[in-house]
Amino acid sequence: MTESLPHWHLLGAGNMGTLAAWYLTRAGHTVSVVTDSPAPPQHKTLIFAEHNASLTLPCVSPSQFHSTITHLLVASKTPYTEAALRRVNGHLDSMTLVLRFQNGMGALDGRLPPGATMLEAITTSAVKGQSPQHTIVAENTTWLGGLPQPPAWFEGLQRHWPNLCWEADIRWVQWKKLVANAVINPLTALHDVPNGALVSDPSLQQQARALCAEADTLLTALDSRWPGNSFSAVLQVARDTAGNTSSMRADRQRGATTEIEAINGWLLRQAQRHGMDLPSHRRLIEALSGQAPT
Question: In which domain, by residue range, is 13 found?
Fold first, then answer.
């Protein structure tokens, strides 16, 4: 008998959460959005390059939970992770599988029940817009991983999620994306420029080089096998996404809290644990948040 596909509870039905929910539902999974109080279903429009698609997601609030959550998809912005997790407080246990689909790192550290299984998702896809309309700018590679073997449902999901890969040891994939975010996002947010400015502006390129060098020094201290040379990779990302607005720039433009604590802040906290300092990253954090992380 075929094993039934999981039902996912979604925290954060923004751009990336909606895209993940779309792929999951195409593969036969079911998804509901966790809300603070009972709410009607959310009707979404996904705008792809060649077609538009509609997605309806039922909502469920803590008062409507009747059992332990078995599969949790966390796609909330990292500054709001703690508040989002409060909605499911008491409904997670050691059997819960959590899929973290967020920028940065460390947002769930110490916030999950002992023994809960966590998968990481890293994507280079891009989505813009405000709910209920989500424009898919690019469907690039997405990696899931963090366990020795993929879950039984992964192969089926691959058939519906373009360019989806499994990476048992996903740490380096995370770090490569983290460095790109730690350079492109804050620089474009601080100077209010598109990503391509890092390629065309010599001053920004010099700052990017210093940020990459600091990150490579730290990551080499964490893992001596780290290949370094992040500057060329980051510059290529900026070149490939030259006309794009980074998520941090978009957050700053609308006065929202940025994710810098989970990106540059994570790097700085790791450096502090190893008796190191990252002055270029520290200055960016202070400029964008008003203070360095503790």
Answer: 7-169
